[in-house]
Amino acid sequence: MGRKALRLGLAGEEALRALAEREGLEAEWEAFLRLRTPGPDPEAWAEAALEALGVEAKEVFLSRFRMALRVDRGEPLAWWRSLLLDEVLPPEVGRGVAVLPPLRATGVRARRAYVLEWVAGRYTLGEREDYFLLEDLREQGLLKGLPRRLRGLDPLFLEELSTRGEEVVLLYPEAGPGGPVEPLAAGERPEALPPASRLEALPQAPFRPAHPTSPASPPHVEALRRYLECPFRAYLERYPLRDGEESPWRALPSPVDLGALGGLFADGRVGPWLRAHGAHLQGLRLYVLWPGRRYRLRLDGVRWEGRAVHLYRLLGEGAEPDLSPKRRWTEWLALKALLQREDVEAVHLWAWPWLGRPRPVGKGVYRKGDALPAFKEVEPLLEKALRSWGAFPPRPGPHCHACGLTDLCRKEEE
Ligand code: SF4
């Protein structure tokens, strides 16, 4: 309508109203007028205006509008404008290309625009009560003077749509459910694009990546434990092995030398705790790697006292011990191996939360010949994991609920 008014040299509200009537756009004109000034319910008006403008971050605008109303209920617009000048919109993340309905696209200028469905009748304003009246009849006789419908063939409307961008691509389907369709203007079919992926290049043989395999380096024993639940997850979690890396215990040097911890003693929470547990901490070696031919262990904390070894499972602040054979293997395997050594008489097993006190686990002290039921439970599982290690297919199950891989394992199967 704006274009037409310009061509006809029309100006002023009355003239524009007459033009709207002639074009059958009274409803749109009225809606436009309603948006120009706040109605009796200013907030509802503001919301409708934002909606008509296609503003998505409505709440930001509306909160400023409410502020403007508080300052001047009678004339809020000047205040709203001024408050909005200081507003920063939240960043739009993950946005693609905007797809706008034709009426919303009018007035928008883009570097490049794609017009979809460039076929006759696609762009109409909607059905009216006189939908079945032929357009030609409106030009003559008694029916002359009936408002014209916008049928998607109006040259000005088409021009408006087709000039939205410096470069415009008009797209149309060659056929629809009713048979072949005629484009408003035939274009040139672009050359086929080269295949962008193996999926496109080999349509008969859908591409499925091979499941990962591992070089034969001995795996970490906790990776083996998780392998039994889901091999695929265990594979991806190996690089890097994150377990323990963000532990607060990393603040301590290894081996712990209380005499060299001046800064930490000054800390209001850590200092008293260091003093209370000095006997356990002095000489404690942290995150000790124990390489093996078939698997590796990483012991959280180890301290020797003559022929006795203290093994500590180091936990985060307030954490509960997790040494059941279902949740942890390392300590039970280390316990068994240590008790077989000539130079070891006893092994003390502890669970120790950061800033808490060490608590004995199981019997607390294990000696040669003691029964180790937890180890008996772990051993066959470990053998089973070692036998199948090397292939890493996904294995869905209840553990998927806690999996951090965001369904990565299913992506290529769809
Ligand atoms: S979602 Fe389930 S099957 Fe997939 S990787 Fe995670 S644990 Fe394995």
Task: Describe this protein's structure.
- Helix 10 packs antiparallel against helix 11 and helix 10 crosses helix 16.
- The mean pLDDT is 82.
- The chain contains 16 helices and nine strands.
- It is elongated and about 115 Å long.
- It is of the alpha/beta class and 414 residues long.
- The longest helix is centred in the C-terminal third of the chain and has 16 residues.
- It has a five-stranded mixed beta sheet with strand order 5-6-7-8-9, covered by helices on one side. A two-stranded parallel sheet has the order 1-2. The protein has a two-stranded antiparallel ribbon with strand order 3-4.
- The protein binds iron/sulfur cluster.
- The site of iron/sulfur cluster (SF4) has 12 residues, from helix 11.
What is the gist of this entry?
This protein has helices at residues 2-8, 13-23, 26-36, 42-52, 58-71, 76-85, 102-105, 155-162, 198-201, 221-229, 231-237, 262-266, 270-276, 278-281, 330-339, 373-388, and strands at 110-115, 165-170, 175-176, 179-180, 285-290, 297-305, 308-315, 346-353, 359-367. The protein is of the alpha/beta class and 414 residues long.
